[in-house]
Backbone:
């Protein structure tokens, strides 16, 4: 029995330490089929997603989904700690020879308690290891608990720093491509700029952003579960919008150069293909077509009204279709698994951007129209806050 406990403990400690190293320290994807952290995320994300998918309101659904990313980090750290505590309890059980102040017999449950207080360096002293092996194990576990605390202190700020860098560009996209962002809106606002360098600079910035997202999400896969500040924005939606816009430019828009768009498309496509593997996405041939023939006609009309003319003919349609098949199955697979709503190619209706909306807008407008003597309900609520 002691031999079995010893072997089981060594296996669990090895798996937990290796998994923690690969998740926190190693900056590359691990191809091994079984990893405790991946098993943990898949077992916790599926029920969470199932509950969230029953919520009809997008705002409330995103609010619930937004809790999973930060909460899963805390639970994952607890999962690792529990594995180490249990494993050292098994080692102490195999080593034997412990003394309890009360004189009660040492059971496995009390050894788990002793392992926990040693791991978190509480040091009550009510249970004392009496052999050299048991003392050595206690010292090793206390050192490992101290190192674990250091990992927690260093891991969380790194995650949130990467999240912050990701969200800055997503927030900037609001004024550039609308809320939610669309390729048609991005090109309509910047594609007809007299200076081609303006659109090229936007594509260049997003080329670098896509590379940063690829690097950070491979190094820290849990970032994929972190949701954006607004329910109509997401890192996947931003990537999809840039891919859509660059695909249109590459397919052909009169007067718009395509050199930088090609580079941006290549980097963004690289990101979604690699991240689809990390997100456990799968291909579904039944996925709906994001851009029907009717949508293409509407897209031509919308862009033409803003001074942009798409190339005509089958060559344009074939080129655009080829580009779309290079990335759309991947973004749809990620969106399906992470429960993210992909942005459309064009706006179905006129909506204000996030920066244009505010909770007091109606009351302020009513007051400005009615004059200084207006004391409406909306205005009264605003003044009650001051």
Residues:
């Amino acid at each position: 029995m002691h031999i079995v406990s010893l072997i089981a403990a060594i296996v669990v400690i090895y798996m937990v330490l290796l998994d923690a190293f690969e998740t926190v320290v190693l900056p590359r994807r691990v191809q091994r089929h079984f990893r405790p952290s991946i098993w943990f995320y898949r077992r916790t994300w599926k029920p969470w997603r199932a509950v969230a998918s029953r919520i009809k309101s997008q705002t409330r659904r995103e609010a619930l989904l937004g809790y999973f990313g930060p909460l899963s980090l805390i639970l994952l750290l607890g999962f690792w700690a529990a594995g180490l505590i249990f494993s050292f309890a098994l080692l102490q059980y195999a080593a034997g020879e412990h003394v309890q102040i009360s004189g009660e017999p040492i059971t496995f449950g009390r050894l788990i308690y002793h392992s926990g207080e040693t791991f978190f360096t509480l040091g009550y002293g009510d249970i004392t290891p009496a052999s050299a092996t048991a003392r050595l194990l206690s010292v090793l576990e206390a050192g490992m608990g101290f190192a674990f605390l250091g990992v927690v202190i260093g891991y969380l700020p790194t995650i949130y720093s990467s999240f912050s860098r990701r969200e800055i560009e997503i927030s900037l996209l609001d004024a550039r491509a609308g809320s939610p962002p669309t390729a048609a809106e991005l090109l309509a606002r910047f594609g007809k700029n007299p200076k081609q360098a303006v659109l090229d600079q936007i594509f260049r910035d997003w080329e670098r952003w896509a590379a940063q997202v690829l690097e950070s999400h491979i190094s820290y896969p849990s970032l994929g579960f972190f949701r954006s500040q607004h329910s109509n924005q997401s890192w996947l939606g931003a990537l999809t919008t840039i891919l859509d816009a660059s695909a249109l430019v590459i397919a052909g828009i009169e007067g718009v150069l395509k050199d930088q768009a090609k580079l941006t498309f290549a980097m963004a496509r690289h990101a979604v293909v690699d991240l689809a593997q990390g997100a456990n996405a799968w291909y579904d041939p039944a996925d709906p077509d994001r851009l029907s023939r009717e949508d293409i006609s509407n897209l031509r009309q919308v862009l033409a009204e803003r001074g942009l003319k798409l190339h005509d003919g089958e060559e344009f349609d074939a080129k655009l279709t080829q580009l779309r098949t290079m990335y759309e199955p991947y973004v749809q697979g990620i969106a399906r698994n992470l429960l993210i709503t992909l942005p459309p190619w064009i706006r179905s209706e006129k909506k204000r951007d996030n920066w244009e909306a505010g909770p007091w807008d109606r009351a302020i407008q009513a007051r400005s129209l009615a004059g200084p003597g207006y004391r409406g309900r909306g205005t009264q609520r605003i003044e009650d806050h001051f």
User: Anything to note?
Assistant: The chain has 14 helices and two strands. The chain has three domains: 2-153, 164-356, 360-386.
